[in-house]
Amino acid sequence: MSYIAAWCHQQLLAPFSFEGCCNRTVFELWLEFILIPALKPGQTL
């Protein structure tokens, strides 16, 4: 099992677990469907 998440204000944001390795496709899907929707107005990457 692999995991990806963002770290914001000492808290995990948008955690995601998946089977296999993280590649460009997995990262882009995480950004589009999990991280970006979890951002609050005014937050930037």
From TrEMBL:
Lineage: Bacteria, Bacillati, Cyanobacteriota, Cyanophyceae, Oscillatoriophycideae
Protein name: Transposase
Top-level division of the source organism's lineage: Bacteria
